[in-house]
Specification:
Elements lengths: L1 H8 L3 H6 L1 H7 L4 H10 L17 H14 L1 H17 L4 H8 L7 E4 L5 E5 L2 E11 L7 E9 L5 E10 L4 E3 L13 E11 L3 E3 H5 L18 H30 L1 E2 L5 E2 L4 H33 L6 H27 L11 H13 L6 H12 L10
Parallel strand pairs: 1-4
Antiparallel strand pairs: 2-3, 3-7, 4-5, 5-8, 6-7, 9-10
């Protein structure tokens, strides 16, 4: 049960926080943390039961990620993206699932979905080459999911597909050296003419219709949710977790802070500090509440066997990007009112501030594109297929 994962996870949070500096310095989540996440079942929360997964409630999964990220942002980010890939693999043809999980159901996959490589048609599949960037957690993965555009002989776009490759078909190039989310190890993936069988690919057009060949094996309601709703929420959740962690740290610090510039006034007695804390808390809670409510609404449609309407999917994306904005704005407010000591290296708040802003630049958190789609739909305009 995924609730058991949450119970066992709580004991691990102090260790994740203690290892946050190590995580940042080595630019990768420590092996001890990865082993602990595996031991309590975090990576299996969205994995099919037929492959030793928990096939659990996505809100339990998001709650786990929120808690992990509140202790250490990079650990929460990597736990989120590596775990959500199990959900996507469950939509692939049976051959792909068996290749990954048949030998070892604990196998992990990283990803890079931006179609920056080259894809050419071949007999029985595709030939893939190129470089893909920002593959978070790739040092801990044995397979990778890469996005690519498929064109016909005339160069016309036919499909956007995800290609599944084993570690023997690619090289991880150490490129990740950043001021935020440094511990995610989001290095480049380099591929040189790897053949990918058609059964090791998944059409994003098909997943856009909440479908996939893997549903013949994994018929649970979990695998009929929209890809972009589930995945983008897995990007926003760690940022909300960072905000919750920053809030707890900020409140504790301000209880003991004395403001020398204001005649020794205790920060806890500053009425303006009270207002900032209240506004920050409201924004964080609102972001989390919207995410949860939307997931439950999606699940209700699936349970009733109803198609998920476009306006709901656009609302999910609207609230997801706004949720990211609210969480980061809350961190900004706390950081700006925390005093100069918040700038010290090793402190939680300054790292959360850097990590949250780093997470903001992920494509899933592009607010204008998501909000434009929602607004256009509300005004009766046609919305082109996209990340919804």
């Amino acid at each position: 049960m995924t609730t058991t994962v949450l119970e066992n996870l709580r004991d691990l949070l102090p260790g994740f926080r203690e290892r946050a500096e190590e995580c940042e310095q080595q630019r990768a989540v420590p092996e001890q943390s990865v082993k602990e996440l595996e031991a309590v079942g975090v990576f299996r929360m969205l994995q099919p039961r037929r492959y030793d997964g928990l096939e659990g409630d996505p809100l339990d999964f998001y709650e786990a990620i929120r808690q992990i990220a509140s202790a250490d942002a990079s650990t929460g980010w990597v736990a989120s993206v590596l775990s959500v890939h199990a959900w996507q693999l469950a939509l692939f043809p049976a051959a792909a699932q068996e290749a990954v999980w048949g030998p070892d159901t604990a196998t992990l996959m990283s990803s890079s979905y931006a179609p920056t490589g080259r894809v050419t048609l071949a007999d029985g599949g595709y030939v893939v080459s190129g470089r893909w960037s920002f593959s978070s957690g790739c040092d801990h993965a044995d397979w990778v999911l890469l996005g690519g555009l498929v064109t016909d002989d005339d160069g016309n776009l036919v499909d956007f597909r995800t290609f599944l490759l084993p570690g023997s078909d690619y090289v991880v190039e150490d490129t990740w050296d950043t001021v935020g989310l440094a511990g995610t190890g989001s290095h480049d993936i380099v591929v040189d003419r790897a053949f990918v069988p058609v059964d090791f690919t998944l059409s994003m057009t098909e997943t856009g219709r909440c479908a996939g060949p893997g549903q013949a094996l994994n018929g649970g309601e979990l695998y009929r949710l929209p890809f972009h709703s589930l995945f983008t929420s897995a990007i926003t959740t760690p940022i909300i977790g960072m905000a919750y962690g920053a809030f707890a740290d900020h409140v504790e610090t301000q209880q003991h802070r004395v403001r020398a510039a204001y005649a020794g006034e205790r920060a806890a007695e500053d009425p303006f500090q009270h207002v900032r804390i209240a506004r920050a808390a409201a924004d964080i809670d609102a972001a989390w509440a919207m995410l949860g409510q939307n997931v439950r609404t999606l699940q209700a449609h699936v349970s009733r066997g109803e198609p998920i309407p476009l306006d709901l999917r656009l609302k999910v994306r609207r609230d997801q990007v706004v949720g990211t904005e609210r969480a980061i704005e809350a961190i900004d407010v706390m950081f700006e009112s925390a005093g100069a000591r918040a700038l010290a290296r090793g402190g939680y708040l300054q790292r959360a501030w850097r990590d949250a802003h780093a997470g903001r630049v992920h494509a899933a958190n592009d607010p204008e594109r998501a909000l434009r789609m929602y607004g256009a739909d509300q005004l009766g305009l046609r919305v082109e297929p996209g990340m919804y």
